[in-house]
Amino acid sequence: MTSVQEHYDQHLGPVYAWMAGGVESAFERGAAELDAVGEYSSNGGVAVDLGAGFGMHSIPLARRGFDVVAIDSSAVMLDELSRQAGTLPVRAIRDDLLSFPQYLSLRPELVLCMGDTLTHLPDEQYVERLVVTVCESLAEGGRFVITLRDYSTPLAGDRRFIPVRSDEHRIFVCFLEYGASRVRVNDILHQREGSQWTMSVSSYDKLRIMPEWLHDLLRRSGFAVTRDVNPSGMLRFAARRA
Which pTM was predicted? Predict the structure, then answer.
């Protein structure tokens, strides 16, 4: 088993944009996800993208006028984000997510933690610290938007095998193993090189964050919270700082 950072730098990072259907398709979906929780546009206001990856949400935010602080632990993903951003106002920063306040000159209007980033964190105590830090950092009335997969009910049998994407050159499948507080994700990638196929496998653990626990944590930390499910089946929490 590898760490989350190693898993992304060595295994997922090089193919992540492909997994998402290509960067422009991912940017379109990212923009649609922003539209689903409010009309976000700004004139130089600050947005923070926690676990920014290759910029699925950072790029649409920058295109809408935000000055984006994009933080991730994966150098591979941030390199791709920087290439995609070009001259857009995006700062790609490799650091721990809790460090984001030190890169702010203004209170952000918006903080995102999308695409299952929250489940990649070390433990529930870290999640609690992050939620409190976001609330303390946001501008009054600012929003904190989270999406994550619901691992509260274990999948069983062959439902634990999840096909992610495939084409004539790659096949990507993940297999889930559930523990009491974590789920082990085994990512299996087949790639074609000429007439031969090669297989690489890497595993890492995600937190099993209970939806009601997260909802209560956000509320106790000073947020007004709404919760629903987005079109891809991920839980979505839209929290506004009172």
Answer: 0.94
